[in-house]
Structure formats: C-alpha cells, structure tokens
Amino acid sequence: MHKGKEITMYDLARELNVSVATVSRALKDDPAVHKKTRKRIADLATELGYQANLFARSLRTKETKTIGFMIHELNSNFINAVLAGVERVTAKEGYDLIIAHSSESFDKEVSNARNLFHKRVDGLIASLAFETRDLNHFKQFADRDIPVIFLTGLSATMTILWL
Asked: Would you say residue 157 lies in a domain?
C-alpha cells in the first residue's frame, strides 16, 4: 500500500483475500462473520490506519448524524447551559454538533444557515440574531423536512419550523 493513501475496505479485502461485504460486516462486528475473521480484519484495519468513510456512509443512509447549532452570542449563560445540555444528549445518541456563531448579525446568520444546510445536518437548533428580519433562510430546511428548533428570549421557547 502507498504511504499517505487512504485505506479503504477494498484494500483490506484484497490484502486478506476476502470479499468487501465480509470486511464491511466484520467492521460492524456482525456475528455472521467468523470471530477469527473479524479479528484479522480489525487488526489489519488498525495496523493500516483504516477509517470509515463517513461521507460515503451518509450518502447511503441519507443521514449525517450531525446537528447544527446556530448561536447568536457566545457570552450568554443561557445559551452556554443549553449548548452543554444539547451536546450531552447528542453525544449520547451518537450525533455530532456543528456550532456556528452569528455575532448578532443577520447576514452572518443567513450565511451560517446556508453552510449548515450544505453540510447536510439532520436537524438545526437556532438562537436567532438580534438583527434577524425574517426566517426565509430557514425555508430550505423545511423544504427538505429537516427540523428546526428556535431558542428565543431568556428561556427556551422551542418551536419546530415547517414553513
């Protein structure tokens, strides 16, 4: 294998003379694959530095296991407490968070919404900027049935947006 080359399941399969399907099942710890074969595949994957291609997986499953969190300001005890709680729950459920900060700017909020949409988040939590004039930039999420939860005021008013 070439140094610096990304190791794929195909490489593991070729090296061990097994099918790609066997490698895939073994890496998911499927009991249908013999225990010794699973161990050989896992050991080689570790040795060669194999990493699952999460982008390819998300294309297949149509799920990124990622939630976007748009924050309007960083110095809010309320937002920090909510963020800590959201991170705890999402991590427990196997989701990652992408945090975007608008600095109370409507234009930056629109840009953040576009970026998070293009990163294909599975859901969005948004604390709106002071300058927010309308919610049109969230329509793209509603059009794809991606839930959006808004946090407003001093306490959470959670509303799922369906424009």
From this structure: no
